[in-house]
Amino acid sequence: MKAPVVLFWFRRDLRLEDNRGLFEALKSGHAVQPVFIFDTHILNDLEDHFKMIDKLREFIPDLHMRAKTYDDFRNEHSE
Asked: Per-residue confidence at 35, pLDDT binned at 50, 70, 90?
């Protein structure tokens, strides 16, 4: 049987720090799979959604690297 995985959806809040939902997912003790979906319902409500999409395209790879660094740190110190 495969180990459980918690799916965490970064919907509007892309913060790693001070993110209650992410904290709860990590607290579960299971592997956490973060997901971000370009939600047109959210983006279309923004005044300048093209500018926001450009910012997200820059930010998401950085978020990925920060999350990986955090995961590596956690794995090193959990043994």
From this structure: confident
